[in-house]
Specification:
The protein has 12 helices and 20 strands. By secondary structure, it is α+β, with helices and mostly antiparallel strands. It has an 8-stranded mixed β-sheet, sandwiched between helices. A 4-stranded antiparallel β-sheet has the order 14-16-12-17. Strands 1-2 form a two-stranded antiparallel sheet. It starts with a strand and ends with a helix. The N terminus is likely disordered.
């Protein structure tokens, strides 16, 4: 759809069961009332008539509805941004989502997978589409300077007080879920099937998707034929859509190493086995895995994020703890990384003379998630839909990133549901221009200064998800 000089071009093709007289009346109304009132009148007809659903001809109607809902959606977004909650603590956020969905007539179930919310919208025969948004914030102190910036200090799962911030834009995802539900409820005449909206907890600790599945997401509720999600990105201009087939986000493995030694006095290292020295050797040795053990061209990351050991300068401690994050796009590469770490830790400790009962302990933690792989056929279909709806200049191919997502689990059950997740740009375009001029990168996701611009980010999120669902649930 192309706007020019405040007018709109709109093509509609009636099916046999649509009333020709009603369409004729609308044509007259269009010329008399202008584009805005025409779109409102058409929206009322679309709620009951059977017109083409997945085509770009619906764009002006969806745009009108999104524009009408935007002021209240922005209020919700800013409220969520001001009141972030950490993983599996999203009680207030879940309550807001549940209340909004109940107003629309969805079948709402709370406390699925701890704090998750499921809203089912049934609308006749057809496929089932799962639409997911995540709710949790990060333990980061915000420094954006926004008037609605978070100053919250909240409890984490351990009961500790932590600063909190929506530094990964999950507040835009929650708001997008609400907005998409509003639009698709208003357009029930244009699609047939079932939508399962889910507000997922604890994505940041890659625990929420598994928790909801373990709590019966695919057995207590309609089983999806497709699973969709979007994620706001700091690395795209606000409103742009980025997509990619195949591996889109990385396999992440969170791995802990407990390096054990034999404690002693700092003045007599010959009587001890120093785990600080041993841990240092292990950290350096791990740096050779990617450069010397992984086939060139394969993506792999081994990062030692924390190292903790010792209590006093003149005491050789008995252990040092390392926390690692590993990234790859392939299961085989990840298996190799883990096996190499185990071998290096054991070999280095043995070479240092550490007793067999004090060798390092390697633990793969629950904060581990396989690669998110977009199903190719589904992704190509949705990319064409986004291009038709938004224009080729607003839809770009995005390369895989080594960030991770637990959305992958919705496609890794026995049902092998096709999944697709895409980016929605959230950074103001002028920020990229400033970055190019100064050489200072724009704040990234997880940065204390990341602040998506609400408009057009929220509108693009709602419009792209609405377009995707309408395409998959188009009336035949």
């Amino acid at each position: 759809m192309v706007f020019s000089g405040g007018s709109a071009s709109l093509r509609t093709t009636a099916r046999r069961d649509a009333s020709p007289s009603r369409l004729s009346d609308l044509s007259v109304q269009r010329s008399a009332l202008g584009v805005q009132r025409f779109a409102l009148a058409l929206l009322a007809l679309l709620a009951s008539a059977a017109l083409p659903a997945a085509t770009p001809e619906l764009l002006p109607v969806v745009t009108q509805k999104v524009d009408a809902e935007y002021p209240s959606l922005e209020v919700i977004y800013k409220d969520l941004h001001t009141h972030p909650e950490l993983s599996f603590m999203e009680v207030r956020t879940a309550g807001i989502v549940a209340a909004e969905w109940r107003k629309l007539g969805l079948e709402v179930t709370e406390k699925v997978g701890n704090t998750g919310v499921v809203g089912v919208l049934r609308n006749g025969p057809g496929p089932t589409v799962l639409v997911r948004g995540d709710m949790d914030a990060l333990p980061i102190k915000e420094a954006t300077g926004l008037p609605y910036a978070s100053t919250a200090v909240v409890k984490d799962l351990s009961g500790n007080d932590r600063p909190a911030m929506h530094a990964c834009a999950h507040d835009t995802h929650v708001t997008g879920l609400i907005g998409t539900a509003r639009v698709l409820t208003a357009l029930k005449g244009q699609w047939s099937g079932t939508i399962v909206f889910i507000a997922q907890p604890a994505e940041e600790i890659v625990g929420g998707a598994r928790a909801m599945l373990a709590d019966g997401l695919y057995t207590r509720f309609p089983k999806p034929d497709y699973a969709l999600a979007l994620h706001t990105s700091s690395q795209l201009p606000a409103g742009k859509i980025g997509y990619g087939e195949g591996p889109f986000l990385a396999y992440v493995c969170s791995l802990d190493i407990l390096v054990r030694g034999v404690s002693g006095h700092g003045s007599s290292p010959d009587t001890a086995k120093d785990p600080v020295v041993l841990a240092s050797q292990i950290v350096l040795a791990l740096q050779t895995i990617v450069s010397r053990e992984v086939k060139p061209g394969k993506t792999a990351v081994v990062t030692v994020g924390t190292i903790h050991g010792g209590t006093k300068r003149n005491i050789i401690s008995d252990e040092v703890k390392l926390e690692l994050t590993l990234r790859s796009y392939e299961d085989e590469v990840m298996d190799k990384l883990i096996a190499s770490i185990r071998r290096i830790c054991k070999g280095t400790a043995e070479a240092a003379g550490v007793p067999a009962d004090r060798l390092p302990v390697i633990t793969v933690t629950d904060e581990t998630s396989p690669a998110t792989v977009n199903e190719a056929k589904l992704t190509r279909r949705l990319a064409a839909t986004f291009t038709d709806w938004l224009g080729a200049d607003q839809v770009v191919v995005s390369p895989p990133v080594t960030g991770a997502e637990d959305f992958t689990f919705f496609g890794r059950t026995a049902e092998r549901v096709p999944i697709c997740i895409w980016w929605v740009g959230g950074t103001a375009p002028e920020k990229f221009a400033e970055s190019k001029r100064t050489g200072i990168p724009v704040p990234s996701n997880h940065n204390f200064g990341f602040a998506p611009v609400p408009e057009p980010t929220l509108k693009a999120a709602v419009t792209s998800m609405t377009a995707a669902v309408l395409d998959l649930l188009a009336k035949k």
